[in-house]
Structures are given as C-alpha cells and as structure tokens.
Here is the input.
Amino acid sequence: MAETLKLFYSTAKVRLGFLIMLCALAGFAVTPGSELTPWQVLVLGITVLICSSSAGAFNQWYERDIDSRMRRTKTRAFVTGRFAASLYWPGAITLVSALAILALALVTNYMAAFYLFLGAFCYGVVYTVWLKRRTWWNVVIGGAAGSFAVLAGAAAVDVTIGPAAIILAVVLFLWTPPHFWALAFACKSDYEKADVPMLPVLVSDRVATWTILGHVVALVALSILPFFYGLSWIYLAGVVVGGVYFLRETIRLHRKPGIPQAWRCFASSIVQLGLMLVTAILDRIILG
Here is the structure.
C-alpha cells in the first residue's frame, strides 16, 4: 500500500501540485476584498492541488514514450509498467478534475473555477498534447498554467482581478521558461534523444543562456512591483532575496555554461518562486 501511494505521489507530480497550490493561495493573499472563510480557503487549496496533480498524472501517461528514452524519466511508473497505461487513466483524471472544478465553483464562484479549468487545460492539453513535441514555444505558452492558478485564487476573493494578482500572474508566466530551460540545459542529451524541441537543444549555449537571463531579469524586476500595490516589507524582503539568488545563478550560467551550474540555476528558480509565494501569503497572515 505504501509503495502504491509513493507511485501515485510521483506519477501525479504532487510536489509540483503543492507549488501550484501556493500560487493560488498567493493570488488569494494579495487580493483585497471580502474575506474567504477558512473552509473556502481550504477548498481552494485542495481543488487546485487535485487539478494540478491530475494534469501531472495525465502528462506522465501521455508522455510515456518520451519518458522511456530519457535517463531522468525512464523509471516512471507508466514506463516500467508498474502502472498499466490503459485508457481508464485519462477518463479517471478527467472525472476527478471536473469534480474539483465543480467543487470550487460551488464553494467560491464560477470565475475561480473557470481559471482553474484553464490552468489544468493549459498544462494537460495545450502544453502536453499540442506543443511539447512540436515547438520550443512549448514552455513559453505552457507557462500560463501557473498564471491561471494565481488568477483562480484572486478570483475566489474578487472576480475583478486586482493589479497585484495580475502582476504575480505575469511573473509566473515569465518564470516558467527559464525554470524549464535550465532543466533542459542540464538534461540536454535526454531531450535530444527524445526529440523534444526545448530551446537549449536547438540553439547555442550563448543564445540559450542570454534568453534565460533576459527572462530572469524581467521577472525579478516585475516581482518587486506588488510592493507598490499594497504588499509590505515582508513580501519585498522575500522577492529581493530570492530574486538576487536566482539572478546570480543565472549570470553564472551565462558566464560559464555547464551542467552543474544549470542544475544550480534550476534549483535557484524554485527558491525564488517559493520565497515570493510564501512571503506574499505571510504578508496577508501577519499584517492582514
């Protein structure tokens, strides 16, 4: 039983799901307006986690042929056969996602549920099915999935999305490409074998690292702006520390491209995002 739960946890990319859940909670936290009850906040977090994890499971089910050719992913459950890749999976995933979206609509409002649907659809269909195998724009457009989670959290409070939440959504949109491109740089040989057109596979290291750096500069600068729309020093401290760290590791990758530094850049992107989201939530909890 414990082993099966571990397989479900990894197959559904639940760790990523918690990050997406934080995106939604941050969207709620930076939106002034009528207070949600603890029950509504709980439902918001759980439904976003369920939808994100369901989309992650669909991603692994659909990409099992790609995963089998990549060293990083060849031990995934659908590749090894520990989970049988039957058509029951997409049916069950669709049903679970639909129930989560419906629950959010009933407990908060239909706009929050609509944004939740868009996030799951963007990752599960737009990114996974339509774009990933066809174009290097895959993670650029697919980055909207995290942005929709922010908007879902904000809309749960007020369907008229405020400037702070919109800025966070744009930051998430800008964050996803350098995050995945750093990973693709570190796993370049894997993506070449799988014939997945990630940017670092298609262009020179110099072009790839310049592109990553440009995105990071833009998102770090933009992440400071919510401070001028009502957030406090708590949030500002988090985004400055995380932003400087991410920027430093990206500059190092540009100056001396290599696999170890690409992994450090990838890790710093997670730290930056985590600090931004957590301090946005703490801002609301501590200062109201």
